[in-house]
Amino acid sequence: MPPSSRLPRLFISGVEAACCLGDDLDSIMSRVRAGESGLKALADFGLPSKRGGWIADRKRMLHQRYGPASALAVDVAKRAVAARGWSRDDLAEACVFAGSSRGNAAGWLDPWPGRKRRKIYAASNNLHSEIAAAVSIELGVHGATHLLSNGCASGLDALGMAMLHLRHGLAKRAVVVSVDLPLSQALLASFAESGLLSANDVNDPYSPKTSGFFPAEAGVALLLETGSKRPSDAWCELAGYWTTSDAYDPIGAEPTGEGITRCLDAALKAFSTQRVAAICPHANGTPAQAAAEASALKAVFADQAEKSTLHLLKPFTGHSLGASGALETAILAHAMRDGLLPANLPNLTEPAKGFTVPATSTKLAKDDLVLNLSVAMGGHNAVVAMTR
Fold first, then answer.
1. Residue-level pLDDT at 187
2. Which residues of the chain, if any, have pLDDT below 70?
3. pLDDT at 114
4. Measuring CA to CA, how many Å separate 200 from each of 20, 70, 305, 314, 316?
5. Predicted pLDDT of residue 83
6. Residue 333 in 3-state DSSP?
7. How far apart are alpha carbons 29 and 128 in whole angstroms?
């Protein structure tokens, strides 16, 4: 979905998040700008991944009516709406798009870490759609309500589908939520069995030594509005959304990165006269994904006159599965509002020649573009373009 002069402009007008870096977006950004990773030892889990990231305030995930992921979605959504000041009438006319890879599975597969034991309401808590329903119920949203579950691209897909909904006049505003809570022993064991978790603690996604990802929790809410011109308090503008499929394997990455290439290439061609200031790649740390993504980045951006700037956020936050793309969007939106992308953690490896992973902040000019990429298990790829 490239931009069009015939369609309304889209803006992110409110954001809230919780992850291992903090329980609100301001706290998260403070630590990112300080160059701090939120990953900690996972000693209590006895699994190959030596570190992971979790939300400190467990109360955000407790609710008598909903599972933990639903409770977290409601929490971040309520805080984002309160900060934005949407009225009951505003919310009644809104729509909800949610994204989650694992839904409320952590609340019923085994006891939730730090969560008081409660009766499992199996009729609803094992349904991914409960996340979107809970937000709709608690906020009083009467428009469309949808849940996207496309693996690690779920958050970006929820954002993209909300963009399509608003672009075509089906609603004036949207609440986009994305949550994943994989730090339960049963879920982590399944990732360990697949060989996807880091086994050597190398937190450098494109390094030849990378061996897997660092699992993490996150909950994100993004508020979207349409308009003919930019609201003075908008965080950034959403300029486009593209998605492709590798049609290759349910788990493994297509080695050449051909599907990722097509997705990025479509985004780049849509903005041939506009500067792409930075790319936030998926960069989850699994060797196969690193190789495929590096190949795609090289194929699309290698001929650029200047080195392409990459901002890798998972070394800060860990990999929160379906919530990762939305979490990265929240961080990028905050940075774009301030006009300054945060520095990467030091000494990260570039995926190929022609790229830089700067350990210093990147200034953004007006109309600069940032591309955010998510790559999901099963070969599903999504890109969202954001402009300042």
1. 87
2. 1-5, 111-126, 305
3. 57
4. 20, 33, 37, 16, 17
5. 97
6. helix
7. 29
Length of the chain: 388
- Token pair in block for residue 43: 């000693």
The pLDDT value given to residue 120? 53
Q: Are 149 and 99 in contact (CB under 8 A)?
A: yes
Compute the C-alpha angle 66/116/222, nearest 5°.
Answer: 40
What is residue 105's predicted lDDT score, i.e. its pLDDT?
A: 87
Spell out the residues 6+ positions from residue 297 whose beta carbon is closer than 8 angstroms to its own.
257, 264, 279, 281, 308, 310, 351, 352, 355
Classified as helix, coil or strand, 100 is coil
| Unique residue bearing structure tokens 């919530």 | 323
Distance in angstroms (rounded) separating the CA atoms of residues 2 and 228 = 17
Q: What is the DSSP string of 122-178?
A: HHHHT-TTHHHHHHHHHHT--S-EEEE--GGGHHHHHHHHHHHHHHTTS-SEEEEEE
pTM of the model: 0.95
Residue 259 token pair: 């599907």
| CATH level 3 topology of 9-227 | Peroxisomal Thiolase; Chain A, domain 1 (3.40.47)
Domain boundaries, the chain: 9-227, 237-387
Residue-wise pLDDT for 46-73, tens only, equals 777 789 999 999 999 988 788 899 999 9
Q: So what's the architecture of 237-387 in CATH?
A: 3-Layer(aba) Sandwich (3.40)
pLDDT of residue 138: 98
Q: Judge if 9-227 and 237-387 fold alike in CATH terms.
A: yes
Rounded Cα distance, 278 and 289, in Å: 20
Cα distance between residue 87 and residue 225, in whole Å: 14
Residue 119 has a pLDDT of 57
188: CB partners within 8 A, 6+ apart:
45, 47, 49, 182, 197, 215
pLDDT for residue 122:
54
- At residue 17, the 3 state secondary structure works out as strand
- Closest by CA to 50, choosing from 213, 288, 207, 287, is 213
